[in-house]
From TrEMBL:
Record-stated family: Belongs to the RutC family.
Organism: Flavonifractor plautii (Fusobacterium plautii)
Chain's gene name: ridA
One MF term in the entry's GO annotations: deaminase activity
Domain of life the protein comes from: Bacteria
GO cellular component, one term: cytosol
UniProt-listed Pfam families: Ribonuc_L-PSP
InterPro entries: RidA (IPR006056), RidA_CS (IPR019897), RutC-like_sf (IPR035959), YjgF/YER057c/UK114 (IPR006175)
Name of this protein: Enamine/imine deaminase
Length: 125
Protein backbone atom coordinates (compact mmCIF):
# COMPACT_ATOMS: atom_id res chain seq x y z
CA UNK A 1 0.00 0.00 0.00
CA UNK A 2 1.29 3.46 -0.91
CA UNK A 3 2.19 5.65 2.06
CA UNK A 4 3.18 9.31 2.12
CA UNK A 5 6.40 10.21 3.95
CA UNK A 6 6.76 13.58 5.63
CA UNK A 7 9.29 15.07 8.03
CA UNK A 8 9.95 18.55 9.37
CA UNK A 9 13.70 17.81 9.06
CA UNK A 10 13.35 18.54 5.32
CA UNK A 11 11.57 21.42 3.63
CA UNK A 12 7.83 21.12 3.12
CA UNK A 13 6.62 20.59 -0.42
CA UNK A 14 6.14 23.84 -2.35
CA UNK A 15 3.35 22.38 -4.46
CA UNK A 16 0.83 19.53 -4.63
CA UNK A 17 3.25 16.67 -4.03
CA UNK A 18 4.67 14.61 -1.16
CA UNK A 19 8.26 14.72 0.10
CA UNK A 20 8.29 11.00 -0.68
CA UNK A 21 6.12 7.93 -1.04
CA UNK A 22 6.74 4.31 -0.16
CA UNK A 23 5.40 1.35 -2.07
CA UNK A 24 6.41 -2.32 -2.32
CA UNK A 25 9.60 -1.96 -0.31
CA UNK A 26 10.80 1.22 -2.04
CA UNK A 27 10.90 4.88 -1.09
CA UNK A 28 10.83 7.42 -3.91
CA UNK A 29 11.59 11.01 -3.02
CA UNK A 30 10.46 14.09 -4.81
CA UNK A 31 13.26 16.31 -6.06
CA UNK A 32 14.88 18.01 -3.12
CA UNK A 33 15.88 21.63 -3.52
CA UNK A 34 18.67 22.98 -1.32
CA UNK A 35 16.26 24.66 1.08
CA UNK A 36 17.38 24.78 4.70
CA UNK A 37 14.24 23.65 6.57
CA UNK A 38 15.14 25.83 9.57
CA UNK A 39 15.45 29.09 7.63
CA UNK A 40 13.70 28.49 4.30
CA UNK A 41 16.79 29.87 2.54
CA UNK A 42 19.29 28.47 0.06
CA UNK A 43 22.98 28.31 0.96
CA UNK A 44 25.43 29.97 -1.44
CA UNK A 45 27.23 28.02 -4.15
CA UNK A 46 26.89 24.64 -5.79
CA UNK A 47 28.74 22.65 -3.14
CA UNK A 48 26.69 24.03 -0.25
CA UNK A 49 23.49 23.58 -2.25
CA UNK A 50 24.39 19.97 -3.11
CA UNK A 51 25.12 19.28 0.56
CA UNK A 52 21.77 20.76 1.62
CA UNK A 53 19.80 18.87 -1.05
CA UNK A 54 21.37 15.58 0.02
CA UNK A 55 20.91 16.40 3.71
CA UNK A 56 17.21 16.87 2.94
CA UNK A 57 17.13 13.54 1.08
CA UNK A 58 18.83 11.83 4.02
CA UNK A 59 16.29 13.24 6.49
CA UNK A 60 13.38 11.99 4.38
CA UNK A 61 14.92 8.53 3.99
CA UNK A 62 15.52 8.28 7.73
CA UNK A 63 11.93 9.36 8.47
CA UNK A 64 10.78 6.38 6.38
CA UNK A 65 13.19 3.96 8.05
CA UNK A 66 15.70 3.88 5.20
CA UNK A 67 19.18 5.36 4.72
CA UNK A 68 21.63 6.68 2.16
CA UNK A 69 23.23 3.21 2.03
CA UNK A 70 19.97 1.85 0.60
CA UNK A 71 19.76 4.34 -2.29
CA UNK A 72 19.68 2.48 -5.60
CA UNK A 73 19.16 5.38 -8.06
CA UNK A 74 19.58 9.14 -8.03
CA UNK A 75 18.76 11.84 -10.51
CA UNK A 76 20.66 15.11 -10.26
CA UNK A 77 19.29 18.17 -12.00
CA UNK A 78 21.82 20.97 -12.54
CA UNK A 79 21.13 24.48 -13.75
CA UNK A 80 24.64 24.51 -15.26
CA UNK A 81 26.63 21.42 -16.25
CA UNK A 82 29.81 23.40 -15.51
CA UNK A 83 28.94 22.73 -11.83
CA UNK A 84 29.13 18.94 -12.35
CA UNK A 85 32.63 18.48 -10.89
CA UNK A 86 31.99 20.56 -7.78
CA UNK A 87 28.63 18.85 -7.22
CA UNK A 88 30.29 15.45 -7.64
CA UNK A 89 32.86 16.18 -4.92
CA UNK A 90 30.13 16.72 -2.32
CA UNK A 91 27.83 14.02 -3.71
CA UNK A 92 30.53 11.36 -3.25
CA UNK A 93 30.75 12.09 0.51
CA UNK A 94 27.14 10.96 1.04
CA UNK A 95 27.66 7.46 -0.35
CA UNK A 96 29.98 4.54 0.38
CA UNK A 97 32.71 4.12 -2.23
CA UNK A 98 32.31 0.83 -4.03
CA UNK A 99 28.54 0.77 -3.60
CA UNK A 100 27.49 4.02 -5.25
CA UNK A 101 23.92 4.09 -6.57
CA UNK A 102 23.07 4.32 -10.24
CA UNK A 103 22.75 7.96 -11.32
CA UNK A 104 21.64 10.29 -14.05
CA UNK A 105 22.78 13.92 -14.10
CA UNK A 106 21.21 16.40 -16.47
CA UNK A 107 21.34 20.11 -17.14
CA UNK A 108 17.96 21.81 -17.13
CA UNK A 109 16.95 25.25 -18.32
CA UNK A 110 15.82 26.37 -14.88
CA UNK A 111 15.04 24.93 -11.45
CA UNK A 112 12.37 26.09 -8.99
CA UNK A 113 13.37 29.20 -7.04
CA UNK A 114 16.46 29.41 -9.31
CA UNK A 115 18.27 26.67 -7.38
CA UNK A 116 21.59 25.42 -8.75
CA UNK A 117 20.75 21.75 -8.04
CA UNK A 118 17.83 19.45 -7.26
CA UNK A 119 18.22 15.77 -6.35
CA UNK A 120 15.73 12.90 -6.21
CA UNK A 121 16.35 9.31 -5.15
CA UNK A 122 14.85 5.85 -5.09
CA UNK A 123 15.88 3.64 -2.18
CA UNK A 124 15.02 0.35 -0.56
CA UNK A 125 13.23 0.43 2.78
Amino acid sequence: MKQVVSTDRAPAAIGPYAQAVTLNGLIITSGQLPIDPATGAFPEGIQAQTRQSLTNVKAILEAAGSSMDKVVKTTVFLSDMNNFGAMNEVYATFFTEGSYPARSAVEVARLPKDALVEIEVTAAL
